[in-house]
Amino acid sequence: MFNLVLFEPEIPANTGNIGRTCVVTGTRLHLIEPLGFSLDERALRRAGLGYWGNLDLAVYPDWNDFCLRNGLAAHGPEPRLHLLTKKARRTHAESTYRDGDYLVLGKESSGIPEELLARYAESCERIPMLPDKATLANRAAWEHRTGELAEEGYAPAEQAERGQAGGHEALQRQDICGNFIDPTDYRISALNLSNAAAVVLYEALRQTDFPGME
């Protein structure tokens, strides 16, 4: 059995989708607080998560408690951990997965904290994606407009505001994947949390001969 770990997840829909994937693959889900949503019965019922009762779930107040309760090294190399980050050199497909491993994904807004990435540097992995230039179809257009505003002396927040006012909202706000981006803080287009979790989990299952996989 594999373990999917969400570090301070923020978006309930992502965690809900990941929970469903965990149920159908027999994977245990670990949530590290704080969470960006409630897990009380009323909230789960309102979200229509009828399968939630079948989920093997554990919730922890912080990273250290998660490590302690699962017998993991909290301050050094830990071969059972796989930390997913865009900053890793090794891809997830180049890693070797064993039954009982922990696949760790960070919060939607900022990923896994730098401190943990440095602590478990040998356990960091990334999902291969197209380079920046290929994933933002209108990158040059909105970068040009942002550059113009910077030359005119506008601060980043003012650049975003004037870009909208000048009819450039579409250029500056949406990438080829449909993600809305901050034009003053460029980030590559990326998989959302539930997509990333599924990609990595199924590679781990494939390597360990999950039923039905060739």
From TrEMBL:
<dbReference type="Pfam" id="PF00588">
    <property type="entry name" value="SpoU_methylase"/>
</dbReference>
<dbReference type="GO" id="GO:0003723">
    <property type="term" value="F:RNA binding"/>
</dbReference>
<dbReference type="InterPro" id="IPR029026">
    <property type="entry name" value="tRNA_m1G_MTases_N"/>
</dbReference>
<keyword id="KW-0949">S-adenosyl-L-methionine</keyword>
<dbReference type="GO" id="GO:0002130">
    <property type="term" value="P:wobble position ribose methylation"/>
</dbReference>
<feature type="binding site">
    <location>
        <position position="106"/>
    </location>
    <ligand>
        <name>S-adenosyl-L-methionine</name>
    </ligand>
</feature>
<keyword id="KW-0808">Transferase</keyword>
<comment type="similarity">
    <text>Belongs to the class IV-like SAM-binding methyltransferase superfamily. RNA methyltransferase TrmH family. TrmL subfamily.</text>
</comment>
<dbReference type="GO" id="GO:0005737">
    <property type="term" value="C:cytoplasm"/>
</dbReference>
<keyword id="KW-0819">tRNA processing</keyword>
<dbReference type="InterPro" id="IPR029028">
    <property type="entry name" value="Alpha/beta_knot_MTases"/>
</dbReference>
<dbReference type="GO" id="GO:0141102">
    <property type="term" value="F:tRNA (5-carboxymethylaminomethyluridine(34)-2'-O)-methyltransferase activity"/>
</dbReference>
<feature type="region of interest" description="Disordered">
    <location>
        <begin position="150"/>
        <end position="169"/>
    </location>
</feature>
<dbReference type="InterPro" id="IPR016914">
    <property type="entry name" value="TrmL"/>
</dbReference>
<feature type="binding site">
    <location>
        <position position="127"/>
    </location>
    <ligand>
        <name>S-adenosyl-L-methionine</name>
    </ligand>
</feature>
<protein>
    <recommendedName>
        <fullName>Putative tRNA (cytidine(34)-2'-O)-methyltransferase</fullName>
        <ecNumber>2.1.1.207</ecNumber>
    </recommendedName>
</protein>
<keyword id="KW-0963">Cytoplasm</keyword>
<feature type="binding site">
    <location>
        <position position="84"/>
    </location>
    <ligand>
        <name>S-adenosyl-L-methionine</name>
    </ligand>
</feature>
<dbReference type="GO" id="GO:0141098">
    <property type="term" value="F:tRNA (cytidine(34)-2'-O)-methyltransferase activity"/>
</dbReference>
<keyword id="KW-0489">Methyltransferase</keyword>
<feature type="domain" description="tRNA/rRNA methyltransferase SpoU type">
    <location>
        <begin position="2"/>
        <end position="134"/>
    </location>
</feature>
<comment type="function">
    <text>Could methylate the ribose at the nucleotide 34 wobble position in tRNA.</text>
</comment>
<dbReference type="InterPro" id="IPR001537">
    <property type="entry name" value="SpoU_MeTrfase"/>
</dbReference>
